[in-house]
TrEMBL record:
Domain called HTH tetR-type: residue spans: 15-75
Coiled coil, from the record: none
SUPFAM superfamilies, alphabetized: Homeodomain-like, Tetracyclin repressor-like, C-terminal domain
Protein name (Swiss-Prot/TrEMBL): TetR family transcriptional regulator
Keywords recorded for this protein, A-Z: DNA-binding, Transcription, Transcription regulation
InterPro entries on file: Homeodomain-like_sf, HTH-type_TetR-like_transc_reg, HTH_TetR, MT1864/Rv1816-like_C, Tet_transcr_reg_TetR-rel_C_sf
Gene Ontology molecular function: DNA-binding transcription factor activity; transcription cis-regulatory region binding
Length: 204
């Protein structure tokens, strides 16, 4: 007897078509950045009619939001794995910084989408939610450091987490923003991590 709750063939086809559209948009983003994600380009890449995109996903804003949702999920996997590692509070902060940098290097266009999102209210809101969620985890690690004496007692964990996130975002954004040429982002990030670590440790 068939499962009455199983999706119908038509429903499965709609879902598959929607996923194919988002796959196409994501591939266009990976190859050419945000400007490459146009509905005609997605239509051609996914081999579907423009009207099908509107029917299954929506406008370009809706397509970008769907791609941003995937970027959010990918970023969360990187960060959650880092925070789950054993070790001290400082170890977790260091692992989180390394994971964020790895996400930016391995998924540059997804990072750019999150660091400089399109002016789409829903996307901005979702990305703000992720930022608050991840900064909260970073603040908790800093708070643990304050509690065990490995971090300065006068630190505001929430403010410090926001500052660290902004600093790393700024350095990582040098890979695609106009400005001074940086030949070795990795060394720059290592220097930043070292300065941050020394700055949060208790003073003698």
């Amino acid at each position: 007897m068939a499962d009455d709750k199983a999706p119908s063939r038509q429903s499965r086809k709609r879902i598959a078509t929607r996923e194919a559209i988002i796959d196409a948009a994501e591939e266009l983003l990976d190859r050419g950045g945000l400007d490459a994600v146009t509905l005609p380009a997605v239509s051609e890449k996914a081999d579907v009619a423009l009207q099908t995109i509107y029917n299954r996903v929506g406008t370009r804003d809706a397509v970008l939001l769907a791609v941003a949702e995937r970027a959010l999920a990918a970023n969360r996997e990187y960060m959650d794995a880092a925070y789950a590692l054993p070790g001290s509070a400082e170890d977790r902060v260091t692992a989180a910084a390394a994971a964020y940098a790895r996400f930016a290097f391995e998924r540059p266009h997804q990072f750019r989408l999150l660091a400089s999102p399109p002016d789409v209210p829903e996307a901005l809101e979702r990305i703000a939610e992720l930022t608050a969620e991840q900064n909260g985890k970073l603040a908790d690690a800093i708070r643990d450091g304050v509690a065990d004496g490995s971090a300065r007692a006068d630190l505001d964990p929430d403010l410090t987490a926001t500052l660290m996130w902004a600093a790393f975002n700024g350095v990582l954004s040098l890979t695609w923003r106009a400005g001074p040429r940086v030949d070795d982002i990795g060394r720059l990030l290592s220097l930043l991590a070292s300065i941050v670590a020394d700055g949060v440790r208790p003073r003698p």
